[in-house]
Amino acid sequence: MPQLSGILVLIGIILSVMDRNMISSLIGENSGLFGFLISGIVGSITLIPGFVAMPLISSLLKSGAGYTQMTMFLSTLMMVGIVTLPLEIQYFGKKVTYKRNIACFFFSILIALIIGRLI
Description:
This protein is an all-alpha fold. It has helices at about 1-15, 20-25, 30-45, 50-60, 65-80, 85-90, 95-119. The longest helix has 25 residues, at about 95-119. It starts with a helix and ends with a helix. About 25% of the residues are buried. The mean pLDDT is about 90.
């Protein structure tokens, strides 16, 4: 519970500090490759549960974030685990862990591009 509370407070602070123009320029539909990569990298590094990620993404979309970027963020958040690499390596080995994370990152790109075209 303390970690979850900390995450919620951090999300609230970030959303209050960043205005709509800043969010739109960083991760909006017109942010291009830069916004796409930022979303993927942050999603890969961040370790938050899905039930916290969904309201966060909803708030970011209402604040000017793009659907493609948020799809990239969500899919990397759920599939790529930079923070959990040591634990995963311990159980599955380096080769399998790196292959899985790289494949999941590229699959996230594919998912985000498909969603971006559909919406």
